[in-house]
Amino acid sequence: MSEATPDRKIPAPQASPENRAFWEAAAAGRLLLRWCLDCGKPHWYPRPVCPRCLSPRTEWKAASGRATVYSFTHAPGPAPLIVAYVRLDEGITMLSNIVRCPPAEVRIGQALRVAFAAAENGQAVPVFEPA
What we know:
By secondary structure, this protein is mainly beta.
């Protein structure tokens, strides 16, 4: 697990009973998604009710960890921070950070893989790096 950048930490996530399994898996270096057992689709952010069909029948499944850059921006400075929407192979889009890549090298459609960085409180959070 690494820091987002040497001088910029990711804000600490807010754990709740509904997303506790997600954060526990992240601490173990695994990315989980919630999948609906009725419509068969994953959703982001982690919550127990499917936002598409409103079914309460959902379960956690491991994600592939593979993604592509959908959109991004960056805050310049001595410790640049790249904020991006990434499209996971499972079809969902999530907001995250891109690490271990100079901002000038990030491209729409670029292949990424999940990594984990320490937030302000030490909690592991999913970030993405070039594949």
